[in-house]
Amino acid sequence: MTGFSVAWGIFMLIILLGSGKGLQNGMEFNFKSTSKNALWIWSRRTQVAHDGLKAGRRINFTVADGEILQRKFEDDMDNFSGRFHLWGDYGVTYKNQYGDFRIEGVMPEFQKIQLVDMVQGRYINALDIKQFRKTIIISEAVQKHLFKEEAPLGKYIRVNGVPFMVVGTFNNPENKDRKQLYMPLSTTQRVFNGNNRLTEMAIATNAVTVAENKRIEEAVRNLLIERHRVAPEDKQAIGIWNTLENFKQAQGVFAGIRMFVWVIGIMTIIAGIVGVSNIMIILVKERTKEIGIRKAIGATPFSIIRLVLSESVLITALAGFFGLVAGMGLLAGVSAILKQMAVDNQDVQRAFFNPSADFNVALSALAILVIAGLIAGYIPARKASAIRPIEALHDE
Q1: Which strand (E) or helix (H) includes residue 119?
Q2: Rounded Cα distance, 45 and 53, in Å
Q3: Which of 27, 172, 291, 303 has the fewest C-beta atoms under 10 angstroms from its C-beta?
Q4: Is 280 helix (H, G, I), strand (E, B) or coil?
């Protein structure tokens, strides 16, 4: 039972560490398709009347807003892209295949902000923007829907009746089933009556801290509310998502979870070690005559200490090893099951995925456990070494 309590302690520590890692993997997966230090900026309606303009006015971003942001924040950003969504009924057809998909006009730099994995061909490039080319890249989910087994590169699909040539296919790492298409921003605006409007703007900053990213965020907001005559206190008119702030907040939460896991795990192990110490005290008491006889025939105090400590270490090492193997084995089994489930349902990866404990951490915990076993056995060992043979032989 003492060995079981030690094994249970190390088993629970491994399971808790693995569970915390699984939750963290799920959180990080949700940031997998976007730059970690990005600002996503979109417009909404004003909530406060300002400068002679009534509340409820819709803010519309334009290409000029993007150009000013690029000039003003040249030293603070790595990449910038405008974005134009096609809302409503824009059917996409190829031969006799049809579908309604998510369609966006973007700039080449968007690839470094909204991260995708190119499977075939290329991304939107500068010539596509400059020459208003009718090119398009499609996700693999769209490819399977429209082209089935046919190769898509160089083929033409129709968007609302307008032909576009497929120049690339990609995967969204966050959601491989998402059916989406990207066109050159300039072409999208010209062909689909977007004029110079932007639905959204995205900035990848060069900030490394949340404070730096917040400074850039506030400066961007202030510039835009001044350009669009928005009341400074109206925080609803312009929305900004600071991914670095959200990512760091999530990391902070999981750092707290890891600390909590270690505290719970260590307290469980300590409870097992106390059990080892108690059982060794009982064993020494029960073996008082045996120890007395050993000393009477020449056993040294050190040999008695070594005898008791070896039993203490044996209990903790063997029990700890079995707890470690059981914990790592269970995590490996759960991880394998989740990977199979994720093939058909990617939502699994967003919540809890690949629970695992670092093997070096597990071995370190086992080493600490063995050292703790030595400490736990030392007090009863010293007591055993101090037993006088004459007293031990008269012990009942």
Answers
A1: strand 117-121
A2: 12
A3: 303
A4: helix
What is the identity of the amino acid at 350? R
Q: Say yes or no to pLDDT of 66 above 80.
A: yes
Alpha helices in 237-355 (DSSP H): 243-286, 288-296, 301-344, 347-351
Choose among 200, 202, 213: nearest CA to 113.
Answer: 202
Across 140-250, the runs of DSSP E, i.e. the strands, are 156-159, 162-171, 180-184, 197-198, 200-205, 238-242
Q: CB–CB of 98/147 below 8 Å? A: no
Instruction: Report the 10 Å Cβ neighbour count for 178.
Output: 16
Here the tokens at position 3 are 């060995």
Strand, coil or helix: 366: helix
Instruction: Write 333-339 long-range contacts (CB < 8 A, 24+).
Output: 334/18, 335/22, 338/22
- Please state, in angstroms and as integers, the Cα–Cα distance from residue 396 to each residue in 35, 278, 307, 382, 386, following that order: 75, 20, 22, 21, 18
- With residue 104 as reference, give the H or E element that holds it: strand 102-106
Q: Give the CA-trace dihedral at 375, 381, 382, 386, to 10 degrees.
A: 180
Ramachandran sector of residue 64 (left: φ over 0; alpha: ψ -120 to 50; beta: rest): alpha
Q: How many residues does the chain have?
A: 396
**In Å, what is the CA distance from 328 to each residue of 160, 322, 325, 358?**
54, 10, 5, 9
The span from the CA of 124 to the CA of 108, in Å, is 5
16 membership: H or E segment, kind and range: helix 2-29
Q: How far apart are CA 124 and CA 141, in angstroms?
A: 19
Average pLDDT, stretch 48-72? Answer: 91
- DSSP state for residue 72 in the 8-state scheme: H
Please give the model's pTM, rounded to 2 decimal places: 0.70
pLDDT at 238: 92
Task: Name the DSSP class of 355.
Answer: -
What pLDDT score was predicted for residue 189?
A: 94
Q: Is the pLDDT of residue 209 over 60?
A: yes
Where do we find the tokens 């409870």?
271
64 CB neighbour count, 10 Å cutoff: 11
User: How far apart (Å, rounded) are the C-alpha atoms in residues 248 and 80?
Assistant: 22
